[in-house]
């Protein structure tokens, strides 16, 4: 690849990251709603907008799928862009941060599919997503640092 600059690619990365964080936020909110309606014995937890549990679950699934796709897109962009520019990978801690985020998102999505059937799946799902918050912060920060060298 002989492109004048990769800045357009890193712009896509920054936008995708923004959307991923928005998806994460909606997942945290809808996940919390599901947890509350599942554990509210006695005083029932009223879901907003008159929604039923299945509608919240569908929205959670939709956002989850979007977040997984966006993170895989970011991995793809990062690898293609770095290989195109340097011809090799591993130029900063951003690589480790990126791989950790991808691993956590995959574990979260796989554990989610096991939630009704297996007892360990729910704590694993919620636990990986809490760690994912920190990993997201790290990948955003390190991405913001490395993108500086491409700026004019
Ligand atoms: C990777 C994408 C994700 C997928 C595919 C996904 C999917 C699911 C599924 C299928 C359930 C079980 C719903 C049920 O039948 O009760 C669930 C529950 C839950 N998820 Fe997610 N989720 C994702 C990401 C997240 C994130 C990022 C968070 C938090 C920031 C989160 C928080 C929760 C919570 C709190 C529950 C409820 C657990 C409970 O009832 O105790 N999820 N998720
Ligand atoms: C989930 C989010 C992300 C993942 C999984 C990810 C993944 C990666 C990976 C694997 C690389 C190759 C790193 C290397 O071999 O050294 C990379 C490079 C890069 N990424 Fe990301 N990235 C993410 C978010 C971001 C964000 C938010 C930005 C900021 C705009 C960004 C900007 C960059 C840049 C500029 C490089 C080139 C690295 C360099 O020149 O040293 N990335 N990314």
UniProtKB/TrEMBL annotation:
Entry annotated with the keyword Signal: no
InterPro entries in alphabetical order: DUF4079
Annotated TM spans: 12-35, 61-83, 95-112, 124-147
Source domain of life: Bacteria
One Pfam assignment: DUF4079
Keyword terms of this UniProt record: Membrane, Transmembrane, Transmembrane helix
UniProt-recorded name of the protein: DUF4079 domain-containing protein
Organism field: Cyanomargarita calcarea GSE-NOS-MK-12-04C
Lineage, highest ranks first: Bacteria, Bacillati, Cyanobacteriota, Cyanophyceae, Nostocales
């Amino acid at each position: 690849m002989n492109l004048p600059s990769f800045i357009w690619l890193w712009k896509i990365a920054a936008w995708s990251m923004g959307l991923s964080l928005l998806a994460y936020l909606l997942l945290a909110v809808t996940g919390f709603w599901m947890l509350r309606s599942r554990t509210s014995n006695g005083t029932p937890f009223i879901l907003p907008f008159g929604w039923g549990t299945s509608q919240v679950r569908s929205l959670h699934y939709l956002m989850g799928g979007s977040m997984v796709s966006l993170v895989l897109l970011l991995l793809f962009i990062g690898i293609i862009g770095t290989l195109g520019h340097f011809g090799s990978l591993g130029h900063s801690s951003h690589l480790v941060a990126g791989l950790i985020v991808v691993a956590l998102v995959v574990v979260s999505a796989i554990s989610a599919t096991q939630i009704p059937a297996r007892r360990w799946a729910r704590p694993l799902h919620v636990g990986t997503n809490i760690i994912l918050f920190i990993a997201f912060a790290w990948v955003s920060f390190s991405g913001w640092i490395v993108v500086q060298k491409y700026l004019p």
